[in-house]
Amino acid sequence: MRHLIDTTDISVAEVDQILETALDIIADRKKYSEACKGKKLATLFYEPSTRTRLSFTSAMMELGGNVLGFSDAASSSVSKGETVADTVRVIGCFADIIAMRHSKEGAPLVASHYSDVPIINAGDGSHAHPTQTLTDLLTIRREKGRLNNLTIGFCGDLKFGRTVHSLIKALSRYTGINVILIAPEELRLPSYIRREVCDKNHVPTREVTTMEEVMGELDILYMTRVQKERFLDEEEFERLKDSFILNPERLRNAKKDMIILHPLPRVNEITRAVDNDPRAAYFRQVENGKFVRMALIYTLLKWAEERPVTPTPRLDTSLVNNDLRCSNRQCISNSEDVDHLFRETENGDLRCVYCEARVK
Length: 360
Ligand code: CP
Hints:
Layout: H1 12-27, E1 40-45, H2 51-62, E2 66-70, H3 84-91, E3 97-102, H4 107-114, E4 119-124, H5 130-144, E5 150-155, H6 162-171, E6 177-182, H7 191-199, E7 205-208, E8 220-223, H8 234-240, E9 259-261, H9 282-306, E10 342-344, E11 350-352
Parallel strand pairs: 1-2, 1-3, 3-4, 5-6, 5-8, 6-7, 8-9
Antiparallel strand pairs: 10-11
Helix pairs in contact: 1-9, 2-9, 3-4, 5-6, 5-9
This protein binds phosphoric acid mono(formamide)ester.
């Protein structure tokens, strides 16, 4: 049995296999209409969502399976204090696979330690969003015909944008990728991602402060929303919220075949006038999300049948250090009674296994 907690939990060959399955589904949807008949997906959404939850639901329905779950944790026994660990042990009695979104970073990893059915991370705080990454990869593959030799500009909130973190990790495993980071000082990409993902994988990476100065170089412009819900200081959000707004004027120097992606929802960072530009691929990207989630559910259930495991916690005890605490207030290890896990990086830093924050 396998979980999908982080983009790199699956190899490049496995990612390609999932994308191939998604393309096969697109080519012949009828062939898969009963592929998950008799199976149940539980969607446990502790945080708001439109696309991810409903595309998972739609995906399972198109595979002939059923869906149960909650979209508001306040209506579940979470409001009575039930932990993530207990919740997944219970839901595992009712469902064959679980998709979980949580505001606390590392919550899906905790779930995977206690679940005897596959767990899919549907977004955890500012940390990761691997199924959005699969959506982005399928979109790039369909729009550009390749996943290598691409210059991609990430623009906006690169600090809190979990989709950016996951996609950079995923693309760093392909060849010929150039990354350009377009963000104000306060919303720069966390330095550990730049160091441990871009630099470590020799991905040429550059930081700039305006989109105009790099627009003509880009094959892909990946826009993001400034994430109000992650700011601790409202004044800072107000100051930064309009940092980058894409309009037709700013696209003047863009390549004719550049594509514009956005995980959505958008607020005002792409003006409506851009929607009619054929390079605007963000609504096509949404539809790809359903197809790739169909492929993922189908694949994880197949792997679970082929390689079931007993429901023993997957804890690597060598990582446990209950004398230390993670410094990230949004980390699940600071709100639930779990073992505190830390991994040593190549340069000797200790990093929390749940949220990847460095121990200060
Ligand atoms: N892209 C994305 O995760 O959208 P939702 O928050 O609506 O699920």
